[in-house]
Specification:
single chain; 2 helices; Thiol Ester Dehydrase, Chain A; alpha+beta; five-stranded antiparallel β-sheet
Length: 133
């Protein structure tokens, strides 16, 4: 199993369609910012997936992204993540995205590597508990 170390990269390529689109009115249909963030997060997950054991998962904890340019519906987007720092369980990625014409995003994304069973147990407790008012 490969080691988690700086320099690992992941990439996601997709066409802007369906739920990735936000409608700005007047026929302006573009990639939404939440969808862009999701693609960047998926790229980071792909970068480290080969390094995680079946007992581990990674969860996002922080995103700082500039959405630099709009991408029209129907165009391809490429989201990339590069693992820049490993600090124990904490992982910091440099992220970016492009469409066929220009850079559309730049920023950072932070993730943590967690024990999958402990994470599931915490979620199960939360699902059974009554929300506090």
């Amino acid at each position: 199993m490969p080691e988690l170390k700086a320099g690992l990269t992941g990439e996601v390529r997709t066409r802007v369609e369906g739920p990735l689109i936000t409608d700005r009115g007047g026929g302006v249909r573009v990639l939404s910012t939440p969808s862009l963030v999701m693609l960047l997060e998926q790229a980071a997950q792909r970068a480290i997936a080969p390094c995680l054991t079946p007992e581990q998962i990674s969860v996002g904890s922080r995103v700082e992204v500039q959405h630099l340019a709009a991408t029209p519906a129907g165009h391809e987007v490429v989201a990339r993540a590069r693992l820049a720092q490993v600090d124990g369980r904490r992982l910091v990625f440099e992220v970016e995205a492009d469409d066929p014409f220009e850079p559309i995003a730049a920023g950072m994304h932070e993730r943590y590597v967690l024990d999958a069973d402990r994470y599931r147990q915490r979620l199960a407790k939360k699902q059974l508990a009554e929300p506090s008012a």
